[in-house]
Fold this protein.
Amino acid sequence: MTRPRIIRCVNFKPEVTYFKPQGIPLSSLEEIKLTIDELEAIRLKNYKGLEQTKCAEKMKISQSTFQRILTLANKKIADALINGRAIKIESDFIKMNEEKMRKFKCEECKYEWEEPFGTGKKGIEMSCPKCKSKLVHRIDSGGHGFGKQPWGYRGKK
Ligand SMILES: [Zn+2]
């Protein structure tokens, strides 16, 4: 069964993304990949103890999809615990999102700074934090997708 790679709504960022059993060399270690939505399912249901309907709601997915993700996640974790496998949490797209800072440069004092997406500020309303000049422009390449956070990651915590 293949599942399309849809990025779900995840509202947290894991601090630790790798778990390794002690005393087993990496070369003979089998790695289990846990996706971020699987971890989110675990977090909401098993850790926070929310109702399944609430969990599905929070992740903006159907209950049956949530159930499927959770079952798979539990199975993977059980497999790791029973068979002594490493767990790797896929967090690639989180990093990607963190890189999506808008970079600006002031023409007057040459000061450069970054603004994250979703601050509500538009490029044209920006002013230099140093000299307050309005002669600022965006210097990063990614001009489109302005202010968009397509999968709903709501910042830190
Ligand atoms: Zn300036």
Notes: Residues 106, 108-109, 111, 128, 130-131, 133 surround zinc ion (CB under 6 Å). DSSP finds four helices and six strands in the chain.
